[in-house]
Specification:
Blueprint: H1 8-18, E1 28-30, E2 34-38, E3 47-50, E4 55-61, E5 66-67, E6 74-80, E7 91-99, E8 112-118, E9 122-125, E10 128-131, H2 132-140, E11 145-156, E12 159-168, H3 175-189, H4 191-198, E13 206-211, E14 227-229
Parallel strand pairs: 11-14, 12-13
Antiparallel strand pairs: 1-2, 2-3, 3-8, 4-5, 4-6, 6-7, 7-8, 9-10, 11-12
Helix pairs in contact: 3-4
């Protein structure tokens, strides 16, 4: 498979329905950098050997401006070594990852990394990309809602679910009405998401309203955590 992560629920379904014994990605890479990694038959889900003879990979903590230590999750930067005519230096791939300390049982000594999905302000819901700024632009136009919001992707029984958390100074008595307005507005401006929900390809949009200054911030920088991806999906 290629593209998005192949979640455990989907893997279990293939095994149960078709007797599939091996599920691996042919490679990990981008159009601009070519292949960055590959999976051997001993790689756990989301873990890739790095093509260190073809590219130089860095996992970087963008908040502290330093390279990540072992087991620390950061953003992937890639420098493809084979691009001579149009070199690319420290290309920001947009994915989060961490280095895997343990050696692989296959015997290969190339470095390994574990992917944790996108690290920018875009979440992949079903086959649609939901951009934070696009949703925020809708929210700020609505009375009583602040521009401070968070998006979270959940994975429940093999289906994606988008959760929006928005800060407001409105009375809790008005929450139900505001939530319905938000859902209606998002569906109207993201018809693809609405269509996926109607076809039951993804779960319905969920909106949570919270008092001002309730959403989580980064402990070091104080910046709002704009997007989240549940690491432990509900199967």
């Amino acid at each position: 498979y290629g593209g998005e992560h192949f979640y455990q629920g989907d893997r279990d379904e293939l095994k149960n329905k078709f007797g599939t014994t091996t599920i691996l990605a042919p490679g990990y890479g981008t159009v601009d950098t070519w292949y960055l990694g590959y999976q051997c038959d001993q790689c756990p889900h989301g873990v890739f050997h790095v093509h260190d003879d073809q590219c130089f990979i860095e996992i970087f903590n963008e908040e502290t401006n330093r390279h990540c230590e072992e087991e620390e999750i950061g953003m992937i930067y890639a420098t493809p070594l084979l691009r001579k005519l149009t070199p690319i230096i420290r290309y920001r791939v947009g994915d989060r990852a961490k280095w895997v300390k343990e050696s692989c049982s296959c015997g290969r000594t190339t470095p390994r990394l574990k992917l944790f999905g996108r690290g920018d302000d875009t979440l992949r819901i079903g086959y649609d990309s939901i951009e934070y700024n696009q949703i925020q632009d809708l929210i700020v136009k609505m009375k009583d809602l602040s521009s401070t919001m968070q998006m979270e992707k959940q994975r429940i029984k093999g289906q994606d679910k988008l959760v929006l958390r928005i800060e407001t100074d409105a009375s809790k008595d008005d929450y139900d009405i505001l939530i319905k307005k938000v859902i209606k507005e998002v569906y109207a401006n993201k018809p693809s998401l609405s269509e996926f929900v109607k076809k039951e390809a993804v779960l319905p949009l969920e909106v949570e309203l919270l008092p001002l200054n309730s959403l989580p911030r980064n402990e070091r920088t104080g910046k709002l955590i704009t997007t989240q991806l549940l690491e432990h999906f509900q199967i």
